[in-house]
Every structure is written in C-alpha cells, then in structure tokens.
Design a protein that fits this description.
It holds the Pfam family DnaJ_CXXCXGXG. With about 450 residues, the protein is an alpha+beta fold. The N terminus and C terminus are likely disordered. Among the domains are: about 110 residues, Helix Hairpins (Orthogonal Bundle), CATH 1.10.287.110; about 70 residues, HSP40/DNAj peptide-binding domain (Sandwich), CATH 2.60.260.20; about 80 residues, HSP40/DNAj peptide-binding domain, CATH 2.60.260.20. The strands form 7 sheets. Strands 11-12-18-15 form a 4-stranded mixed sheet. A 3-stranded antiparallel sheet has the order 1-6-5.
Length: about 450
C-alpha cells in the first residue's frame, strides 16, 4: 500500500496511552502494556475502548519501523501509509500473543469471538447403481491428525499460568511471573511466543520508496511459519515432536441410503484433521455413480434398451429382465400388439426408490429398437404380401416409367454424412479468410 507522507501530527498520543516516555525501551513497553492490558481487559470489567487503544498503541510502538514513522510523522502517517493507524490486528489477538489465551477463562473475550474452523476433507466414493437402488454400507479406513494425547497440543502449565496471572496481577508481580514461566516451554511440548512476529504469525515490512512515499508489505513469519509460536528442540513433546498432532487411523461406516443421487454428500461432522485452537472440520464423502452396462438413471426413473426382431415386433414378444435387486421381471406384449421402431413403453413403480421415501419408486422405461432383415427372397415377399396390408403406392404404366429418369439408392449413415459436410464447410470458410482481400470482396457483394 502506498501513501504520501503527511505533515507532522501528534506523535505522543500512543506513549501517553501506555504511560511511558518517548525514549522507553522495548522492555518498558512490554511491561507497561501487560500491566494496563490486564487491568483494562473486558473480561475483568475493564473498558473495551481503552483496551483497544492500548493494543493499537502497543502494536505500533513495539514495531521498530512503525515506531520510527510514528515518531517522525505522527499518527496521520500511519493512517495514510498503512491503512488506518496500523491497528488492523484484533486487540484480543495482541493480548493473547503474550499469554496463549485469555487468563480470565474461556478461549477469548466476553464478546464471544469466533473460533477458527479447520478445512473439510472431501473424499469421492464410487458406488454402483445397485448400491443406490438397494442401499448399502461401506467401511472405510482413513488417516487423520488428532491432538497429541501426551501434550494435548498446548503447554501443560497453561492452566497454572492463567490462574497465577490473575493472582499476580493484583500485586503487580505478573512481569516476574511471565519472565519465569511464560517464556519457557515445558518438557511436554510447551510453546513460546515467536519473538520474530510477537505471536501474530505475520511480519510487516515497511520500505521507504522516497522522501514522500512508503510501502507496507505483509507476509507469514518465516521463523514460526505463521503459527505465532516456536518450541525449543529440547522442550518438544517426545510423542508428537512438537507438531501438537499425531496421525490416527479411523474406520468410518458410510451408510448409502436407497435412492441417493450421484454427487450427493454424506457428512461426518468434526471428523477431519484436528488442530489446536481450531474447530475441527468435517469429512465429506461425495457419491460417484459408476456406469451401468444395462440401466441408465434419470432422477427417479430408469431406462433400458431392448432390441426386437421384426417377427417379435409384429407378432409379439416376451423376455426376462433382471432388475437391480436381482428380481426377474417378465416383459411381454399384448396379443396382437405391434411395436414400432424407437417406441417407448413404461412400467410403473419399477424405477429408482425415492430418497428417504423408499416405498415410492419412479418408472422403468423400455426403449425398443426393431431389427429388420437385410434382404428377402421373392418367395418371402409373396408370403408377407399375403398377410400384410396391401401396398399403398400407385401402380405406374409403362409410358410413365419411360418418361422417368431412373436413380440408384445407396446406404448412408446420416450422422457421419452431416459431420463430413460440416467439416468441409469449415475448411472452405477458413480458406476464404486466408485469401488476400477476401473480406473486401464480401463487403462489395453485400453492397
């Protein structure tokens, strides 16, 4: 972010808020902030606005580069060059960066701050059409991260620290106490506030681009990798090696109910990877229906293809269709019924079960294709003419036939024919575009 350096403005306000002089050291700033922040914390009945001012003042003055700009130009320079006085961090986050949490109970302020939520883990689950028709259950073994059972993902002395902070704050002994306990990790994996980012997980770099231009860049702290805390090697938990989580195998039973759809989600709340100070996300299985060799599904209906011979189409048919649950269905035509090519017939209540209303089912549609013989001999033609309706074509005289031009029919695949013609038209269009002056000739023709 860029901004012009303003004229000098008030550069003493933040020092007055913390109650320190302009030449106060970093240790003096820390002591002053800790004392005032505990005194004014909203969970202890303090003024929320005063608590916010303290956090903003400390955030600026604890950063050497921000402090230099503040001392030189005042608060206006921070507002213009750094987007609002450098107070972009939550005051409770700054407070917790000292103590790893609220020392007055709970995980945050009395205003009910939201806990960060972990990511959901999505797994595709392939199922057959039979699985979706009949319902099934599948047991799946998954690996996930869980909070280390030995160190619980936090320092085992945190609770003791919190209680002692409240007691010591009344006697102004919190500084010595924090120096003794809070800065040292326990043998069970206690973490310390990262000195590089002061526990925020973020570093802010400020560059002077000129006498009237500054630039602020924000990036994850390279010392703690954005976690806001570090652990000494000698203090790391022997079970999780300081990672705070360990891998665990877990078996989940996924219930696929009758009538579920392709793409439907089955959710296991709170079963994703665990992490300290994070609400665990969900494991979500997304159903992916495999292609079926016979049945096709469209919503709650099923479709199946069946080919009849010409004799079956004209004289009747019957065949057995094995359904998705293994039941044999007898499919037959009515006496004297003729089935035409590309005709559909339906059977009620033999489609897919309706999800969560399995007693209801859609329809089963059968698409009939009629297979004609390639040729007939003269005797077969005479036999058919004897039983079939008479020809409807007009009988032509020899004179009329002599006046006609005879043609020859040949077999053709109309889809292939249309694709070929479309490709030829596209090639001709591209060749016309490549010709010099082609566009001009088209324009003249339109005129």
């Amino acid at each position: 972010m860029f901004g012009r350096a303003p004229k000098k403005s008030d550069n003493t306000k933040y020092y007055e808020i913390l109650g320190v002089s302009k030449n106060a050291s970093q240790d003096d700033l820390k002591k002053a902030y800790r004392k005032a922040a505990i005194k004014n914390h909203p969970d202890k009945g303090g003024d929320p606005e005063k608590f916010k001012e303290l956090a903003q003042a400390y955030e600026v003055l604890s950063d050497p580069e921000k402090r230099e700009i503040y001392d030189q130009y005042g608060e206006d320079a921070l507002k213009e060059g750094m987007g609002g006085g450098g107070g972009g961090h939550d005051p409770f986050d700054i407070f917790q960066s000292f103590f790893g949490g609220s020392p007055f109970g709970g995980g945050g302020s009395s205003r009910g701050r939201r806990q960060r939520r972990g990511e959901d883990v999505i797994h595709p689950l392939k199922v057959s059409l039979e699985d979706l028709y009949n319902g099934t259950s599948k047991k799946l073994s998954l690996s996930r991260n869980v909070i280390c059972s030995k160190c619980k993902g936090v320092s085992i002395i945190f609770l003791f620290v919190f209680v002692m902070l409240v007691i010591c704050s009344s006697f102004f002994l919190y500084e010595d106490f924090c120096t003794t306990f809070c800065s040292k990790g326990s043998k069970s994996g206690a973490s310390m506030k990262c000195s590089g980012c002061q526990g925020s997980g973020i570093k802010i770099s400020i560059r002077h681009l000129g006498p009237s231009m500054i630039q602020q860049m924000q990036h994850a702290c390279n010392e703690c990798k954005g976690t806001g805390e570090t652990i000494n090697d000698k203090d790391r938990c022997p079970q999780c090696k300081g990672e705070k989580v360990v891998q665990e195998k877990k078996v989940l039973e996924v219930i696929v109910e009758k009538g579920m759809q392709n793409g439907q989600r089955i959710t296991f709340p709170g079963e994703a990877d665990e992490a300290p100070d994070t609400a665990t996300g969900d494991i979500v299985f997304v159903l992916q229906q495999k292609e079926h060799p016979k049945f096709k599904r469209k919503g709650e209906d099923l479709f199946v293809e069946h080919t009849l011979s010409l004799t079956e189409a004209l004289c009747g048919f019957q065949f057995i269709l094995t359904h998705l649950d293994g039941r044999p269905l007898l499919i037959k035509s009515e006496p004297g019924e003729v089935v035409k090519p590309d005709q559909y017939k339906a059977i009620n209540d033999e489609g897919m079960p309706v999800y969560q209303r399995a007693f209801m089912k859609g329809k089963l549609y059968i698409h009939f294709t009629v297979e004609f013989p390639d040729a007939l001999n003269p005797e077969q033609c005479k036999s058919l003419e004897a039983v079939l309706p008479p020809r409807t074509s007009v009988q032509l005289t020899d004179m009329e036939l002599d006046e006609c031009e005879e043609t020859t029919l040949h077999d053709v695949n109309i889809e292939d024919e249309m694709r070929r013609k479309q490709a030829q038209a596209q090639e001709a269009y591209e060749e016309d575009d490549d010709m010099p002056g082609g566009a001009q000739r088209v324009q003249c023709a339109q005129q």
